[in-house]
Amino acid sequence: MKRFLTLWKREVASYFISPVAYILATMFLLVMGMGFWFLANVRLMNGATFYDLLRALYGGVAWFAVLMVIPVLSMRSFAEEKRSGTLEMLLTAPVKDSEVVFSKFLGIFTVYVVMWLPTLAYYPLLQNVAHEPLAYDYGAMAAAYLGVFLVGGFYLSIGLLCSSLTQNLIISSISSFAVIALTFLAGFLPAVSPIPLLREWSEPFSSVLHMLEFSGGVIDTRSVILYVSSTMFILMVTTRILESRRWRA
């Protein structure tokens, strides 16, 4: 456990001692802030409820921020280590491959969570723009953030997997964005597919529908299990890829 915590601290520190995390956080909060401002000033003026705002913010605007941030946040996890030659040093250290993979995932997931924390300030600000006091539903807010973290963790694991396959940062970023974007777009199949069977089979796996459910205050345990198990599976695949590199060496 001590080795895992040391690796996790190393990963988190590698982001905050460089301008990457700060630039990403600035861009992320800029997109989310503009989206919040638009929704608060337009939708609330038209009589939208607190639930409408949650669904629009986390089921809509948040996707732009997530798709922008996650490929860049995860691209350097292994690709940078390979490029600089520090991965070989890490693999020769007395640590398990699984500890390396899971510590890197937890590190970028920690940065991802920290980037979301300032958005908690949006809700006190709502009272300043609403025509009448809003009845907050803290359960719905918690469900929305749970969805953001579950879906975000799943997409971060995809980015980590793509980063483990190359030492080029650009290729890592583009490939992870492509896979994540395809996964995201596949979430619209239940609404746009002309094939009834495809609509039926794709609906349980639609991250778009899942985020709408979470942002509406609905926590479906099937969705929670899906994202936790999918994330763990991808991280195990990444571990196998790292082990194969040790074998080749």
Task: Describe the model.
It is a single chain. This protein has one domain. The protein has twelve helices and no strands. It has helices spanning 2-16, 19-43, 50-84, 86-92, 97-116, 122-129, 138-163, 169-186, 189-192, 196-202, 207-215, 221-248. Helix 5 packs across helix 12. It is globular, with a radius of gyration of 19 Å. It starts with a helix and ends with a helix. The mean pLDDT is 83.
What tags apply to this protein structure?
single chain, 249 residues, mainly alpha, 0% strand, globular
Short description:
The chain has 249 residues and is mostly helical. It has helices at 2-16, 19-43, 50-84, 86-92, 97-116, 122-129, 138-163, 169-186, 189-192, 196-202, 207-215, 221-248. The chain has one domain (2-248).
> What's the rounded overall pLDDT mean?
83
**Main β sheet profile:** none
Structural class: mainly alpha
Gross morphology: globular
Helix content: over 70%
Radius of gyration, rounded? Answer: 19 Å
Number of domains: 1
- Strand proportion: under 5%
Contiguous helical run count: 12
SSE arrangement, N to C = HHHHHHHHHHHH
Number of strands: 0
Head-to-tail CA distance between termini: 27 Å
Poorly predicted sequence stretches spanning 5 or more consecutive residues = none
